[in-house]
Design a protein that fits this description.
Elements: H1 3-24, E1 42-45, H2 50-53, H3 66-72, H4 88-102, H5 106-119, H6 121-130, H7 132-139, H8 143-149, H9 151-154, E2 161-164, H10 171-174, E3 185-189, H11 206-219, E4 226-232, H12 238-241, H13 256-273, E5 278-281, H14 286-296, E6 302-304, H15 305-324, E7 338-341, H16 345-361, H17 366-370, E8 373-377, E9 380-381, H18 406-413, E10 417-420, H19 430-439, E11 444-447, H20 459-465, E12 471-474, E13 481-482, E14 488-489, E15 492-493, H21 500-510, H22 517-529, H23 533-537, H24 548-565, H25 579-588, E16 597-600, H26 602-614
Parallel strand pairs: 1-16, 2-4, 3-4, 3-5, 5-6, 7-8, 7-10, 10-11, 11-12, 12-15
Antiparallel strand pairs: 8-9, 13-14
Length: about 625
């Protein structure tokens, strides 16, 4: 049984009755049940003994008070010392972090974090929320990339659901193997393009698991309402096809209509079982990512983080970078010359988000806005005479030379913003960075390929070559850079985590029927406006990660307001333009990990049954 499944089953015993009561009230029936897992709240459980200790959403390790040990039949099954309930979770977090920091290898830290998650989710999320800047790079990028590469060797306990080619025709039935119907977020991948590491097949399951941990930490989506999914359509990675440790289907990938039919069966099954859930597509290959989003975005509640999330956070970073450069005029965006290197799904997502913002914020026509872009693929600039049959067609410039290399393109176009999404380590060479600096005194440089090992350039390279004048953000974190003379330059991490948790909270709270462009634009603008002047003065263009929960609330509010304006918000009992009322509702929907008081319903029912039999 998966730990998520186990968690879901345990939490449903305490949350389902509250949900049913909430839904029975006319004014509350369409809202989420309150997140009432707070210290002092009663949590009704139907397990006793070791079953409680083996359930990660009930287990408290050594933190059970004596009276709970008696009620739940676990006295003698945990160490004897008892603690002041008010402080015990803080002590446990300190113990976790102390052990974590003694581990030198990041992958060992990852394994330890997963072990905590698999045994005590409240402790895991409390530690994650309280130490987000330290732990986020361990449970997600860049460390998760290595975890995916070693997934088979590291595998200890299953989590989430797997739908494989062997399951065709059975997916609808299989969804009922998941123990709860109250799923709100489904993160699904087919493992075909894991970060910038390529086809890792079923090993890519670490990505949905990590992504959902960030939904919970960043926006309070309850872990029992999160479902990680692997769509195992095979793999074209030769090493995995012969690897005895590989846990997925060892055949080449489905392709063409056979592939799309496979995905369609899953989407239909998921929507039948969990009609209110948002499907979050993650790390699909470029040949499939855009077609799948185009197929489903107007039919079901779905979102592609690589396309829409990356686009929104890039837009936010660009707007904040303009503020850092001293230009806070909303019209400043349309004055930029933007060079996007990489014409895959992520590159197109970024370009389209910036293009849409220019049209809506700057009043440009589509034709005018397109003249502010140059896009490059593996052959060079998309210019005169280029014939491509992809979604990048609209970015082909008929007034610009074709197939120029990076330095030639920079010298011809003189960009102010350089964005890399190529998975080509070191592509932004010294010559490229010098050319950028030659034409722009404050160049915006975004090498976004993940993990760090395949970034187009490092923070140190960008800052040293531009004499500290670059505004730099990367996909994975880099350390601050001290230049000759002692000046300290601060890189930013252009992390999709700034967007997708708040988006998910907003979509769930207003019960949006779709995720549209206006909602993504609203999220991006809110993120850009949330960067403090103090951060901008240091060259930082994103808020500290430790502020993510309050930031997610503000992003969720803007998403709900945009959904209401565009007619896709189905929760109409809340006026989302009433900020005070809306924030109360959003905060109510955010789970905060603390231990509740566990009350055993199993023995009560057993006693009632025995009493009836005696009578």
């Amino acid at each position: 049984e998966s730990s998520s499944a186990s968690s879901s089953a345990s939490s449903s015993s305490s949350s389902s009755s509250k949900a049913d009561k909430a839904k029975s009230k006319p004014t509350k029936k369409s809202r989420l049940p309150s997140a009432r897992w707070q210290l002092g709240d009663l949590v009704m459980v139907n397990k006793v003994g070791v079953d409680v200790l083996h359930d990660p959403l009930l287990n408290k390790n050594e933190a059970f008070p004596l009276e709970e040990r008696e009620r739940l039949g676990i006295r003698g099954l945990v160490p004897p010392r008892t603690y002041d309930n008010e402080h015990v979770l803080r002590i446990q977090v300190q113990r976790v972090m102390s052990h974590m920091k003694r581990l030198e290898d990041k992958i060992n830290q990852y394994v330890f974090a997963v072990t905590v998650q698999d045994t005590n989710e409240i402790l895991f999320y409390r530690a994650l929320i309280d130490n987000l800047e330290y732990l986020a790079p361990i449970i997600y990028t860049p460390t998760v990339g290595r975890a995916c590469q070693e997934f088979g060797a590291l595998f200890r306990r299953t989590r989430g659901m797997y739908f494989s080619t062997a399951d065709r025709g059975q997916m609808g039935v299989m969804t009922y193997n998941w123990p709860t119907s109250d799923v709100q977020i489904i993160v699904v991948t087919d493992g075909s393009r894991i970060l910038g590491l390529g086809d890792l097949g079923s090993n890519g399951m670490a990505i949905p698991i990590g992504k959902l941990a960030l939904y919970t930490a960043g926006a309070g989506i309850h872990p029992s309402r999160c479902l990680p999914v692997m769509l195992d359509a095979g793999t074209n990675n030769p090493s995995l096809l012969t690897d005895p440790m590989y846990l997925g289907m060892q055949h080449t990938r489905l392709s063409g209509e056979e592939y799309f039919d496979f995905v369609d069966e899953f989407v239909c099954a998921a929507m039948e079982r969990w009609p209110n859930a948002m499907i979050h597509f993650e790390d699909f290959s470029s040949e499939h990512a855009e077609p799948l989003l185009s197929k489903y975005r107007s039919k079901v509640l779905c979102f592609n983080d690589d396309i829409q999330g990356t686009g929104a956070v890039n837009l936010a970073g660009t707007l904040a970078a303009l503020r850092a450069a001293g230009n806070s005029d909303p019209q400043a965006l349309v004055e930029q010359r933007i060079m996007v290197v990489g014409a895959g799904s992520a590159g197109l997502g970024v370009a389209n988000a910036l293009l849409y913002a220019m049209e809506n914020m700057g009043g440009f026509s589509r034709e005018q806005a397109l003249r502010r872009f140059v896009m490059l693929d593996d052959k060079g600039s998309l210019g005169t005479g280029r014939d491509i049959d992809t979604a990048a067609r609209k970015f082909v410039r008929d007034d610009f030379p074709d197939k120029l290399d990076l330095v030639q393109t920079i010298n011809e176009f003189k960009p102010t913003v350089l964005i890399g999404l190529t998975a080509c380590h070191g592509l932004f060479t010294e010559d490229v960075l010098r050319a950028m600096y030659k034409h722009c005194p404050r160049p915006v440089i975004f090498p976004l390929s993940n993990p760090t090992s395949i970034a187009e350039c490092t923070a140190e390279q960008a800052f040293r070559i531009t004499e500290g004048n670059a505004i730099f953000a990367s996909g994975s974190p880099f350390d601050q850079v001290t230049l000759d003379g002692g000046r300290v330059c601060y890189p930013s991490q252009l992390n999709n985590m700034y967007i997708f948790p708040g988006l998910g909270l907003g979509v769930i709270s207003c019960r949006a029927s779709r995720v549209n462009r206006q909602m993504m634009l609203a999220a991006a603008r809110t993120l850009a406006e949330s960067v403090s002047d103090e951060c901008l003065a240091q060259g930082k263009i994103f808020p500290p990660l430790q502020e993510i929960r309050s930031l997610s609330e503000r992003i969720a509010l803007s998403v709900c307001q945009a959904a209401q304006r565009t007619g896709v918000a189905q929760e109409t009992s809340i006026d989302w333009d009433d900020e005070e009322e809306a924030l109360v509702e959003l905060h109510r929907n955010m789970w905060d990990p603390n231990y509740g008081k566990l009350v055993n319903t199993y023995r009560r029912r057993l006693n009632e049954s025995m009493h009836k039999s005696i009578v």
